[in-house]
Amino acid sequence: MTINDARTGVGPLLRDWRRRRNLSQFDLALRAEISTRHLSFVETGRSSPSRDLLLRLADQLEIPLRQRNTLLVSAGYSPVYQETPLEAPRLKSIREAVDRLLTAHEPYPALAVDTDETIVAMNGGTRLLLAEVSPTLLVPPINVMRVCLHPEGLAARVVNVEEWRSHLVGRLYRQAIFSGRESLRVLYDEVASYVPKAPEDCQGLSDSIVASIRVRALGTELKLFSTITTFGAATDITVAELSLETMHPADEHTADAFRAAAAAAGQTAPWAGEVGSVATPAPTAGG
């Protein structure tokens, strides 16, 4: 996979993002309500864009907040969007929201990840699902793609592994293209190398937000599907880059298996304290 490196200057950066979104100058100019001539002059450096125009173009191009700051700085403006550590008091309400969502989803797996697919919080249901994954993959910082796709990870127990792997690798490919993040490109190259022949054209894979998985765990075969949720209208980089993945039982047998396993383990709340700082693990029964 090839992702263009960011180049110096606001014009080349804008052109790169426009091409990444498969938009012509005419299409982008129409959406941003400016002339094609003006946009062309901005991209070639013949015209200096205003701060408001840059933000309008970034909005139409759906540029991630972190990269919007880069765009502003390249044009000589100060960055607009803050990046607040997740443990900061300012994000207390976000941590509490994530905590509530992870807790509410028990006993089924749920986790919060950042833009590099690093797990910042997970609940007890996730721990149950990953119980037989190699411990070396569960040493923080834990990367969800690595845990899922590594030969010693969850992939070893997935029945429909080809279908599931294609979905995850394809999703990672699109995230790398969409965000322009070099770290995601490197991660894509790594997980694609786990199998002798990785998908050659992940762009053509399904864009469905629901992924089905059949996995041998908890002493039986489980059937699950997953959904991904992000924080809408976020203005802080940390929050904008945070997503929640929840796995749901696809049949009653799977639901019963998780309920029984959670009851046996005494797990009723997120175990995120060991991974991030979003939630604190509740004591186990008898603890």
Brief write-up:
This is Helix-turn-helix transcriptional regulator. 42% of the residues lie in helices and 11% in strands. The chain has 12 helices and 5 strands.
Features:
434 Repressor (Amino-terminal Domain); 2 domains; disordered N terminus; Beta-Lactamase; 287 residues; 5 strands; alpha+beta
Descriptive account of the structure:
- InterPro entries: Cro/C1-type_HTH (IPR001387), Lambda_DNA-bd_dom_sf (IPR010982), MLTR_LBD (IPR041413).
- This is Helix-turn-helix transcriptional regulator.
- The structure is a single chain.
- With 287 residues, the chain is of the alpha+beta class.
- The protein folds into two domains: 10-74, Orthogonal Bundle (434 Repressor (Amino-terminal Domain)), CATH 1.10.260.40; 89-274, Beta-Lactamase.
- Helices cover 42% and strands 11% of the residues.
- The protein contains twelve helices and five strands.
- The protein has helices at residues 10-20, 25-32, 36-44, 51-60, 65-74, 92-104, 124-129, 144-149, 161-179, 182-192, 237-240, 252-265; strands spanning 110-113, 119-122, 211-217, 220-230, 243-249.
- The protein is elongated, with a radius of gyration of 21 Å.
- Residues 1-7, 198-209 and 268-287 have low confidence and may be disordered.
